[in-house]
Design a protein that fits this description.
By secondary structure, the chain is of the alpha/beta class. Helices cover 64% and strands 10% of the residues. It contains 19 helices and ten strands. It has a six-stranded mixed sheet with strand order 6-7-8-3-9-10, with helices on both faces. α2 packs parallel to α5 and α14 packs across α16. The two termini are 53 Å apart.
């Protein structure tokens, strides 16, 4: 289950468990982390030392004033400057040292999540929302950085400073001052967390409405042509603006509650500082404390409240970061449906034969897809699979790639079971031209070379020539460097299919699968491609999944599927002589081809 930014956090979150899960990502740089924490403590020691020096400076000057002496306290002034410098130096040193820890943790998390996503099954990816997964990945990495950032730059420094201030106040002054200081901090802390928790509902609503408005806008822009076809620009604008109107109302409430929070915090600080200054001034008049002591206590109060000014923001961001971290660790807990057996070996194909042994398969138990599918393909032969849409043809291709495991029966190459070999070695030996070709948003050359990343330019060009797309590419101003656009949208369906064919040819696999590989081609190009496929198929074991029967008449074997079952099997001529389902399909397509020819 995925969420929009800022949605209500999981009630079944395991924050402590997630924080423990984060520790391995820090282990590489544990020395740096420890050094950064040491710098943090030193910077806070220097920071707390500043009011102590200031107290001495004020007392010294006051004593000289009473005695009528005027000597510049150089050593105290230099110490004051040195502590200011040390505070800044150790703060910046902490930032520099800890940067590597934060960004390496982000990098490791991002890489691990992406690797895990590649390990997850096709079923997961067909059900996922790409945008939500992308946001989870991005926020997951940033959440690790944010948690570390707030711990090292906000939470731990605050605790260290509180501890040092408490030590000084309790060690040098009556307990009343420490009690007032920390009671004020406690009230401030409680008020800030309570109001921030209340305000977060407004933030959740704002984020949800903002995401909804963005979703409306992107949905309309992605369907730009449809919007224009129906002249519904005003409708899309209204949907967008209606959501933004709700967002505006919630945003105003959020800002108003922020002002309430700020005023409340200011009131608590004013009350605490006034009360402690009242008692400090009283002790000065009684002679129990010096003027420097009053400056010291005031300085400590201000130092305590400066970091607390960001407490509401820090608290909210930590909650968001923990929610984002929870999402990414839940994603990492997703178990791959298909995994290599512990004793899996690399697949070595000698003859490239294929065996489907009485295979039953379903995506969901209430809807079986394949029933007792049993066939074999001899090495170097071509098998064609035909049948109506939904008969299970493309499912066979997915099973051959082991995107799913069969529910009954087995599949093998050279009598090696798919379940006994590694997925990487299996897929290395298979090439496919899918029915719906999706290209990377890169150059045509990159997309062809994807079949063999280390291929030379000459090999890429030869594959393009075999796929009959070389003349088209050569005519482009940037030739093989031409960008194809997101998902290949700058190319036509036929051009994308020819790029996919070139990519499969370049891979030079032992087994080739063509899933409706010429469905988007015109008849002239299809005939040229058929000649290429015929040439390529001579050297490989080939499976042709086809709708147009004219493309598979030369296949060594044809199986006809209907509702997940093989109902006929044989060569083209023998199937026609049976005058069964294949014969009826052939007659219908021949009639359609004649009618189309007559119309033209």
């Amino acid at each position: 289950m995925h969420h929009f930014p800022g949605t209500t956090v999981h009630k079944d979150r395991h924050d402590l468990k997630n924080l423990r899960n984060m520790l391995p990502f820090l282990w590489d740089y544990r020395g740096r982390a420890l050094f950064a924490l040491t710098c943090l403590v030193l910077s806070k020691v220097a920071n707390v030392g500043i009011p102590l020096i200031l107290k001495q400076l004020v007392d010294d000057l006051q004593a000289q004033s009473i005695a009528g002496v005027a000597i510049l306290p150089v050593s105290l002034l230099l110490a004051y400057g040195a502590l200011k410098l040390a505070n800044s130096l150790f703060n910046e040193l902490r930032d520099v040292i800890f940067a590597r820890v934060r960004y390496r943790a982000m990098r490791n998390v991002s890489r691990k999540v992406l690797k895990h996503l590649y390990d997850l099954s096709l079923r997961f990816h067909l059900q996922r929302k790409s945008g939500a997964i992308g946001r989870d990945m991005d926020r997951g990495a940033r959440s690790i950085s944010s948690i570390l950032n707030y711990m090292v730059f906000s939470i731990i420094p605050m605790l260290v400073e509180f501890t040092l201030v408490a030590f000084v106040l309790l060690g040098n002054y009556e307990p009343l001052f420490a009690i007032i200081a920390f009671a004020t901090v406690a009230v401030y802390f409680g008020f800030t967390l309570a109001v921030t928790e209340w305000r977060m509902e407004y933030r959740h609503q704002m984020n949800n409405l903002d995401s909804e408005a963005g979703s409306h806008a992107m949905d309309g822009l992605l369907n730009y042509e449809t919007v224009k076809y129906f002249g519904n620009e005003d409708l899309e604008l209204k949907r967008y603006d209606d959501t933004l109107a709700k967002w505006e109302e919630v945003a105003v409430k959020s800002q108003s509650s922020m002002s309430l929070l700020n005023f409340g915090q200011g009131t608590i600080i004013a009350a605490g500082v006034t009360l402690i200054m009242f008692f400090a001034a009283d002790r000065v008049t009684q002679g129990a404390m010096t003027l420097g002591d009053l400056v010291l206590v005031n300085g400590f109060m201000l130092q305590l409240f400066i970091p607390l000014g960001f407490l509401g923001i820090v608290y909210r961001q930590i909650k968001y970061s923990l929610a984002d971290m929870d999402r990414v660790f839940k994603l990492l807990e997703e178990k791959p449906e298909i995994s290599d057996a512990p004793d899996a070996v690399d697949m070595h194909i000698r003859e490239a034969s294929i065996q489907f042994n009485h295979v039953d398969f379903f995506y969901n138990p209430d809807r079986q897809i394949l029933y007792d599918v049993d066939f074999s393909v001899a090495a170097g032969h071509t098998l064609a699979i035909v049948g109506a849409s939904g008969s299970g043809k493309s499912t066979i291709a997915r099973l051959l790639y082991r995107f799913y495991d069969v529910n009954q029966g087995s599949i093998g190459y050279d009598h090696q079971s798919l379940a006994s070999v590694t997925q990487q070695s299996l897929r290395k030996n298979i090439g496919i031209v899918p029915q719906d070709t999706v290209l990377f948003n890169d150059s045509i050359g990159y997309n062809i070379r994807y079949g063999k990343p280390d291929a030379s330019d000459a090999e890429v060009q030869q594959a393009a020539a075999l796929a009959h797309i070389a003349p088209f590419i050569d005519a482009l101003p940037q030739a093989y460097d031409t960008l194809v656009g997101e998902r290949g949208l700058k190319l036509s369906g036929g051009e994308k299919q020819r790029v996919a064919i070139a990519r499969a040819i370049l891979k030079a696999p032992e087994i080739l699968i063509f899933d409706e590989a010429t469905s988007s081609l015109d008849s002239h190009t299809e005939k040229a491609i058929q000649a290429t496929l015929k040439e390529v198929s001579r050297k490989t074991t080939t499976i042709l999944i086809a709708h147009r029967l004219s493309t598979i008449v030369d296949a060594d074997q044809i199986i006809v599927m209907r509702q997940g079952r093989i109902i006929e099997q044989g060569q083209h001529q023998s199937l026609l002589q049976q005058q069964g389902h294949y014969y009826a399909m052939w007659q219908l397509q021949q009639k359609q081809a004649e009618e189309k020819s007559d119309d033209s």
